[in-house]
Amino acid sequence: MDRFSWTNGLLEINETLVIQQTGVRLYDGDDKAKLDVGIALLSTHRLIWRDSKNHDCCISMPLSQIIFFEEQAAGIGKSAKIVIHLHPASANKEQGPYQNSKFSFIKLSFKEHGQIEFFRRLNEEMIHKRWESTPASQPIPTGVGSQAGRTRAVGIVGIERKIEERRKETDKNISEAFEDLSKLMVKAKEMVELSKSIANKIKDKQGDITEDETIRFKSYLLSMGIANPVTRETHGSGTHYHMQLAKQLGDMLQAPLEERGGMMALSEVYCLVNRARGMELLSPEDLLNACKMFESLKLPLRLRVFDSGVMVVQLQSHSEEEMIASALDNVTDKGSLTAEEFAKLLGLSVLLSKERLLLAEKMGHLCRDDSVEGLRFYPNLF
């Protein structure tokens, strides 16, 4: 503890706060320091401790004083600690709460946790040693003798240096922002040229559109999402809003459902829809209410609830008989299947694959073997 000296707690020029943690008690070696619980602050140059109640009670120690540090796990009735081993105190050290100490290490006891992140950030600072590359403002003598106090150079020169650093940082951020904007404009230009090319070919009938152009154009359109999503601001609330939302979902989900075998879990639909809507996110409740209107609006989609409670959206043409026949054919062909194996065969999620197998079992076409190795389905020969 004799390595600490009194300070006002203010950061110096070129010094940056890294992390702070409340509820930290200091130990002088294995003994509790004669200080109350306070706030530990780690900067790029110093380790600072401030009393929680009396903010005038503030001490600091340069990070260059640290040799190495280690974690000490919490025990029964004991808080987790960081043990910091230190170099001997310098001869010209400023005054602090301790003038002498028989210990060469201190401990930080974390009463309110946070020691893991504090340890990680301290380790980073000790590795990078930023206090060497960006030294804090140098002390200058006051001209009142060798024992006189010292002041920090925070005059006009220091202020101008700080302003210049902020200006450079601002210029850097602006340059990076415009660099990203330039990349976006290049991509937009490519989209415009591609769309013009396709439009001209269709208009002038100068030849078929190549497959490569079709794939690129489709990927651009998919990345754009829904151009005019149905919202409460545009379509009101209540039943009318859910009806319009259901119609839009019917148009949007038909192609993804066909690609996924005619069925998708409602959670998967939720993620797909919100990704396409961009900033106009949809709540789970609104999605469910809209899906419930598929049948009444005579849309080609249906909301289905399995016996297990799993909700899915499926194409109307995706009949139950086809699902059962598919499950029976695959199980008969392989001899037996688990839900995971069936999912790999069909390219579906394990959840939906299991529901198909359970449905075939419910209709009497399959039987199960539930063992320590898992749930496996067999053709029902009984």
From TrEMBL:
Keywords in UniProt for this one?
A: Coiled coil, Cytoplasm, Endosome, Protein transport, Transport
Location of the GLUE N-terminal domain:
1-138
One Pfam family recorded for the sequence:
EAP30
- Recorded GO MF terms: phosphatidylinositol-3-phosphate binding; ubiquitin binding
Location(s), subcellular: Cytoplasm; Endosome
Check the record and name the PROSITE patterns matching this protein.
GLUE (PS51495)
Major location (coarse): cytoplasm
Functional description taken from the UniProt entry:
Component of the ESCRT-II complex (endosomal sorting complex required for transport II), which is required for multivesicular body (MVB) formation and sorting of endosomal cargo proteins into MVBs.
Report the sequence similarity comment from the record.
Answer: Belongs to the VPS36 family.
| UniProt subunit comment | Component of the endosomal sorting complex required for transport II (ESCRT-II).
Q: What is this protein called?
A: Vacuolar protein-sorting-associated protein 36
Taxonomic lineage of this organism? Eukaryota, Metazoa, Chordata, Craniata, Vertebrata
